[in-house]
DNA sequence: TGTACATCAGTGAACGCGCGTTCACTGATGTAC
DNA sequence: TGTACATCAGTGAACGCGCGTTCACTGATGTAC
């Protein structure tokens, strides 16, 4: 049952995207090759026509997920990004959410190639955040980068800690609410001292 | 080869502590029952004389690790805690480090019982941090709790993100250094506006 | 205190199962003429 | 354009392996008398 080259390429991409979601939901070890292929609408045997190994797909799926989380959050501005990111909706839907938050615990135990993919995803996310971060005043690029890196770690920690609590627990929600408010409050260098500046001026 | 009741109890505790370290190093799925028992100096068959299942041990080992991270950091003060926590030494030694940072990614996919154990560990850590947090001024208990919860998520995120980067990468170190400095700077409510107050006055 | 027997922590072979991976096969696609 | 053949994406059975768990067994401990 051979298939068009274009169809085969589309199938391959579909498998990567399916894997990207499933890995975020269940972790790398929680998704088998047969599971994955069935979820994508295929039988497991064809897997190795597309990928050298499960580890290879893990790297591709991670890269795909890391890139996707970027395109999902382009141009909304940093405070709104934090509102969307540090939310119950995001916490409760890891499959469609941030790959860093869903898989960085797993990534820490993976071989260097996959960690490099992760570091690359972090760098790209950082670059996107930097470009959207308006301090309302001149700020050296290094300072902006540090601020966004700090904010990202903060937000990732909030989601991950919240996800490790029982689904209906007050603590899980408290973590999100406390952290969201404080991350947003920390965004402009000194919000209370510096009244809102019209960015269109 | 039966063994003294006291010895059996000691062996059981030794298995839990060994598991606590190995799970932090390799994750719940990365440690088999046979691995674990061998590391503790036993054969695998005896495991079920002590524990009903691997899942039961996971909960006990997590509780043990979460309690341990508390006793390791009693009385050193919050800024010093951050210095020790958000460090390369901690990042590079997960087996002896914080159970939250090592396993909260795994915990998010575990059954409610284990998540409840995790939430309990977070609450206990919070209580310990609150008792050590000196704002230099009067602050409502709720505000102190929020500050410590926020700080904990921030520190956990920094370690986890750093661990997901390649071992020798500049980004891994940058994350730690940037976050450590900023977390510490954020500790007193307004460090720049409020010069050091002699706490002995 | 000494003796006989039950208990049970620890051993190591064995179990069923699911995993990642391989392979012979199918049949539509792609290609050479 | 039409024909003959090679290619190869996808199928599904099979592989070896390691996992969590079970079990008959051992022999020192604990207990009853």
UniProtKB/TrEMBL annotation, chains A, B:
What keywords would UniProt list here? Answer: DNA-binding, Transcription, Transcription regulation
Which GO terms of the molecular function aspect are on file?
DNA binding
Q: Which domain of life is it from?
A: Bacteria
* Positions of the HTH tetR-type domain: 9-69
Q: Which InterPro entries match?
A: Homeodomain-like_sf, HTH_TetR, Tet_transcr_reg_TetR-rel_C_sf
Q: Does DNA-binding show up as a keyword for this record?
A: yes
Instruction: Name the Pfam families for this protein.
Output: TetR_N (PF00440)
Tell me the DNA-binding residue spans. Answer: 32-51
Q: Does the keyword Transcription apply?
A: yes
Organism name: Pseudomonas zanjanensis
Official protein name in the record: TetR family transcriptional regulator
């Amino acid at each position: 049952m051979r298939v068009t080259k274009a169809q085969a390429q589309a199938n391959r991409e579909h498998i990567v995207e399916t894997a990207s979601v499933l890995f975020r939901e269940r972790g790398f070890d929680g998704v088998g090759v047969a599971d994955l292929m069935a979820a994508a609408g295929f039988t497991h045997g064809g897997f190795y026509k597309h990928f050298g190994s499960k580890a290879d797909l893990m790297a591709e799926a991670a890269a795909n997920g890391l890139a996707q989380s970027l395109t999902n959050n382009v141009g909304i501005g940093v405070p709104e990004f934090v509102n969307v990111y540090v939310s119950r909706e995001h916490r409760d839907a890891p499959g469609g959410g941030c790959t860093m938050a869903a898989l960085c615990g797993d990534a820490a135990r993976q071989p260097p190639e996959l960690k490099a993919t992760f570091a690359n995803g972090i760098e790209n996310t950082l670059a996107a955040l930097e470009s959207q971060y308006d301090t309302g005043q001149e700020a050296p690029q290094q300072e902006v980068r540090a601020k966004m890196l700090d904010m990202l770690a903060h937000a990732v920690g909030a989601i991950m800690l919240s996800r490790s609590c029982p689904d209906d627990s007050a603590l899980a929600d408290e973590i999100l609410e406390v952290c969201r408010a404080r991350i947003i409050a920390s965004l402009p260098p000194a919000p209370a001292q510096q009244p809102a500046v019209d960015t269109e001026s």
